Amino acid sequence: MNSKDVTGVILCGGKSQRMGFDKALIHFKGHYVLEETAMSLKKIFPNVLLVTDHKRKFPAQLLANHVFLEDEFMQKGPLGALVTALRHIDTPYLFLVACDIPSITVTKIRCLLESVEDEQVILFSGEKLETLFAFYHRSCLSQFEKQLATDNGKIRTAFDCLDVKKVKKKNIDIVNINYPEELIYWRQND
């Protein structure tokens, strides 16, 4: 698949309850981690969207440099944000990544991109499925909308009804930062 057929999407509207502050605003080495993620996506994909609960929480500089969408389903978690993004893309696929996955590299994304054929969902699997570092086809929208109506916010629940390709992770770490201790560890080791 050609990267021009993909819109990069960053989820940056979660509750961040475990962290104690908004993870979308994590700052490291003089800039927002979110901005570093966006710049990595822009090296691959022609369009990048940031889906958030409230645009007003971001500084003017971030708002000026990136395209933000407000989540149409703020209380529905990542599934609601995914549905919002799927409703607004013009490309066949989107690549979804959460803002709390730092150290996103072009290499990691390309490794997964090279596995895309004609499936509806393409994601890494290992100890768990990486639903927030994955490709989703626009045709998934109706299934995710049905699931949204059931109040089951788990993205993977819809996988039984979709064509899903699970790619084994080989020497690729996808690290989520959910707790202050994890953030401290990541900052010390990055």
Automatic annotation (TrEMBL):
<protein>
    <recommendedName>
        <fullName>Probable molybdenum cofactor guanylyltransferase</fullName>
        <ecNumber>2.7.7.77</ecNumber>
    </recommendedName>
</protein>
<keyword id="KW-0963">Cytoplasm</keyword>
<keyword id="KW-0460">Magnesium</keyword>
<keyword id="KW-0808">Transferase</keyword>
<dbReference type="GO" id="GO:0005737">
    <property type="term" value="C:cytoplasm"/>
</dbReference>
<feature type="binding site">
    <location>
        <begin position="11"/>
        <end position="13"/>
    </location>
    <ligand>
        <name>GTP</name>
    </ligand>
</feature>
<dbReference type="GO" id="GO:0005525">
    <property type="term" value="F:GTP binding"/>
</dbReference>
<comment type="function">
    <text>Transfers a GMP moiety from GTP to Mo-molybdopterin (Mo-MPT) cofactor (Moco or molybdenum cofactor) to form Mo-molybdopterin guanine dinucleotide (Mo-MGD) cofactor.</text>
</comment>
<feature type="domain" description="MobA-like NTP transferase">
    <location>
        <begin position="8"/>
        <end position="153"/>
    </location>
</feature>
<dbReference type="InterPro" id="IPR013482">
    <property type="entry name" value="Molybde_CF_guanTrfase"/>
</dbReference>
<keyword id="KW-0547">Nucleotide-binding</keyword>
<dbReference type="InterPro" id="IPR025877">
    <property type="entry name" value="MobA-like_NTP_Trfase"/>
</dbReference>
<keyword id="KW-0501">Molybdenum cofactor biosynthesis</keyword>
<keyword id="KW-0479">Metal-binding</keyword>
<feature type="binding site">
    <location>
        <position position="23"/>
    </location>
    <ligand>
        <name>GTP</name>
    </ligand>
</feature>
<dbReference type="InterPro" id="IPR029044">
    <property type="entry name" value="Nucleotide-diphossugar_trans"/>
</dbReference>
<feature type="binding site">
    <location>
        <position position="100"/>
    </location>
    <ligand>
        <name>GTP</name>
    </ligand>
</feature>
<dbReference type="GO" id="GO:0061603">
    <property type="term" value="F:molybdenum cofactor guanylyltransferase activity"/>
</dbReference>
<dbReference type="GO" id="GO:0046872">
    <property type="term" value="F:metal ion binding"/>
</dbReference>
<dbReference type="Pfam" id="PF12804">
    <property type="entry name" value="NTP_transf_3"/>
</dbReference>
<feature type="binding site">
    <location>
        <position position="100"/>
    </location>
    <ligand>
        <name>Mg(2+)</name>
    </ligand>
</feature>
<keyword id="KW-0342">GTP-binding</keyword>
<dbReference type="GO" id="GO:0006777">
    <property type="term" value="P:Mo-molybdopterin cofactor biosynthetic process"/>
</dbReference>
<comment type="similarity">
    <text>Belongs to the MobA family.</text>
</comment>
